[in-house]
Amino acid sequence: MSDHGLEIIDRTVNDTNHWLNELSSQLGCEKKQAYHVLRGGLHTLRDRLTVQEASHLGGQLPHLVRGIYYENWRPADAPCKVRDQEEYLVLLAERIGDDQVTEPENAARAVFGLLKRHIDPGEWTHVRGMLPAEVEAMHDAA
C-alpha cells in the first residue's frame, strides 16, 4: 500500500494525469480542455464500435480513464452509423463542447495518437478496422 492509499488508485490517477498532460502538451491547451478532448474523443470512438470491440478497447484503458470512457454509454445504440470523416468530426465537436479551443480534426488525431501509444497494437488494428476509411486515415496520421 502506498503512502496515499491503495496503490491501484494512485497508479490510475497518475496514469490519467499523464494522458491528460500528453494531450495538453500536444494540443497546446489547458488540462481542463484536454479532459474534454479525451472524454469527447473516447465517446465518439466508442459509439462507433460494436459492443464487443468497445468493451475490448475499454479493457485497455487505465481504470479512471475507463470510467470516463463508459460514462453514459448505451450499448443498445451501438454502433452508431458514421459514414465519413466530416460526420465523425461533427459528432466529436459536439461532444467536446462549446468551449472548444481545439479544431476537431486536431483533437481526433491527438486522441488517436494517445491511444496508439498506450494500447495493445493488435487492439489498435481492430479499432482502426471498424472505422470509415477517411476516419481510419486520421488514425494513420496520428
Automatic annotation (TrEMBL):
Gene3D superfamilies: Uncharacterized conserved protein DUF2267. InterPro entries: DUF2267 (IPR018727), DUF2267_sf (IPR038282). This is Uncharacterized conserved protein, DUF2267 family. It comes from Tranquillimonas alkanivorans.
